[in-house]
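ok new one. same drill as before - structure tokens go in, u give me an amino acid for every spot. 305 of them this time. try not to just spam alanines like last time pls lmao
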């Protein structure tokens, strides 16, 4: 970033770097995980009244309008030219790719089965981080991360009956593009506030999202119900904007590998919301898996690179 940065934070917003205020960074990243854990149930609600393409396009438009309004209100200047390629990766992976692929998968997959994606996402994000940014977590970190990911995968696969569906192709593709977007977003959040990272990525997608929404709404049936509208509003404002704002801020404070391991708890939270909001049933394995995952999270948070 140039000395006179074109992405200047407001006076009340400081750019965090790894090692600064780790407690706050962990809390922000955890808050992002809670927001993300509601995404699949909210998407299932949204699909009750919208087609998959309409839901994804409209959520992107709404989230971009929220982000654009914030950027305009605070008079934030556009980022430096060097940051736009990274923002394009964030936009492609987090704003468009992951929502579209998981929404397509959720047409035929349960939220429990789709949770396999977020169960593997922390490990995949750490791998992308190691390749992109040269991070070298310790062996203890990797052992705990692999153990936690294995526990989550076993649990979620058993919840879905052990059978793999055609939706798995969408889910694993979503895993890859999201990990790339998280990694690039975490890198950018070191040099600009995290909310600006996702804000500009959303705005970058607006010229594509608006015509896509118009076409999708014209070709897919729409039924406005309490569930469908609530689901749409949550995935747009909660998952697509506010959740990513605190998530990127948290990653900038504690580092991408450690922040990504907090997402090991996300599938279990998603399953809890699935019971409460969608009426799905869990087995007695849930608390045992939760305990194992929490132990793995504690280990990864203490492990040093």
């Amino acid at each position: 970033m140039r000395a006179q940065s074109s992405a200047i934070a407001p006076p009340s917003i400081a750019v965090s770097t790894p090692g600064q205020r780790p407690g706050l960074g962990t809390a922000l990243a955890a808050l992002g995980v809670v927001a993300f854990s509601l995404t699949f149930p909210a998407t299932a609600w949204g699909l009750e009244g919208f087609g998959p393409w309409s839901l994804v396009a409209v959520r992107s438009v709404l989230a971009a309008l929220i982000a654009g309004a914030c950027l305009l209100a605070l008079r934030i200047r556009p980022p430096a030219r060097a940051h736009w390629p990274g923002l394009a990766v964030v936009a492609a992976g987090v704003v468009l790719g992951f929502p579209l692929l998981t929404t397509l998968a959720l047409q035929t997959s349960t939220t429990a089965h789709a949770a396999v994606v977020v169960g593997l996402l922390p490990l995949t994000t750490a791998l992308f981080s190691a390749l992109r940014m040269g991070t070298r977590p310790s062996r203890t970190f990797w052992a705990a991360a692999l153990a936690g990911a294995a526990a989550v995968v076993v649990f979620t696969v058993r919840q879905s009956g052990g059978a793999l569906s055609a939706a798995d192709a969408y889910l694993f593709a979503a895993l890859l593009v999201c990990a790339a977007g998280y990694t690039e977003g975490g890198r950018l959040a070191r040099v600009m506030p995290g909310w600006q990272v996702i804000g500009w990525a959303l705005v970058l997608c607006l010229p594509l999202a608006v015509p896509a929404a118009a076409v999708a709404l014209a070709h897919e049936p729409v039924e406005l119900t309490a569930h469908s509208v609530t689901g749409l509003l949550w995935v747009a404002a909660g998952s697509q904007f506010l959740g990513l704002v605190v998530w990127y801020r948290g990653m900038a404070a504690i580092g991408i590998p450690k922040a990504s391991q907090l997402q090991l708890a996300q599938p279990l939270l998603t399953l809890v919301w699935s019971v409460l909001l969608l009426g799905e049933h869990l087995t007695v394995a849930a608390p045992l898996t939760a305990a194992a995952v929490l132990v793995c999270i504690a280990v990864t948070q203490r492990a040093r690179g």
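Residues 1-19 have pLDDT under 50 and may be disordered. and btw The CA atoms of residues 59 and 233 lie 7 Å apart.
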